[in-house]
Write a structure and sequence with these properties.
The chain is mainly α. The chain folds into 2 domains: 142 residues, no CATH class; 31 residues. It has 7 helices and no strands. The N and C termini lie far apart (61 Å).
Amino acid sequence: MLLFLVGGFGGAVNAACALNSVVHNTAWIHGHFHTTVGSAAALSFMGAMYWLVPRITGRELSFRRTFARWQPLLWFIGMLCFSIPSHISGLMGLPRRVFATEYGGAVQATQWHGLTLASAIGGIILFVSAMLFVGVIVHTLLLGRRTAPAPLVWADWLGMPAEGFRTTIWDRLGVCWAIAGVLVLVAYAVPLYGILTHARYGSPGFKPF
């Protein structure tokens, strides 16, 4: 979630038209996505696998006190080393989807070298962490010590409240839908009406030949 906070801040920048025009198609973008999808989402899947695989297979999680414990922290460190320099180099103009960043010895490109090297080191750390994760899961599936499967605990319904669910007006689903509809109209209808009714400017049409 700490990494996701950074990704959320970058997402607010991407959502602003004026700011996005600066960072669009730069290294900022892949730095942003690695702090969202590559951090919160990836670590959630890894944690779920560590919890679920032993319960499904009846095998004890391998290396749970060593590799399985340190692998998520290593992923966190690698993601910081990869994404933070990408944000900075993106603000300096480093474009996305390029193989070579020296741009024929351009002066500005020399300012990116240290940052791209830091990102590369972060990528290596991420790769090591990913291989540790794969190793733990594969070893658990093939060679993990067999144990009694841990029970899957499900949330139990506690029953109907004595006073019922509709105790106040805010507990009524129809009221919530109505409020949501009004908010959508305010958020979208008003600006769309302004866009459709404001004066349009432009050059008159012409015939090229």
